[in-house]
Prior knowledge:
Elements: E1 3-7, E2 10-13, E3 18-25, E4 34-39, E5 46-51, E6 57-59, E7 67-72, E8 77-82, E9 91-97, E10 107-108, E11 112-117
Parallel strand pairs: 2-11
Antiparallel strand pairs: 1-3, 3-8, 4-5, 4-9, 5-6, 7-8, 9-10, 9-11
Amino acid sequence: QVQLVESGGGLVQAGGSLRLACAASGSIFSINAMGWYRQAPGKQRELVACITSGGSTNYADSVKGRFTISRDNAEDTVYLHLNSLKPEDTAVYYCNVEPVRSCRGRYWGQGTQVTVSS
């Protein structure tokens, strides 16, 4: 399997910024896609952003222009820069890694809470 350790969540006011980080270790497969999902109370988990080992990215429409995903391939670490945060961004954010080119949501971290106050 793979161990994913997330960090960087917290409480921030609307309009503020955060940076999430997720470090992968112990993987039995070569990591290709890395990404972030989120789950708000009472809602389904949704894909926020995904980046392949080649640098291709995709974002949920709700975060385009506000969030940026990046990665350090040498360190197997993925980052999510959250800017212009809104109360509706409040959720638990989960790191996801895959041996394929898309974030399929099969391998998860423990999650980190992001709370945006209005």
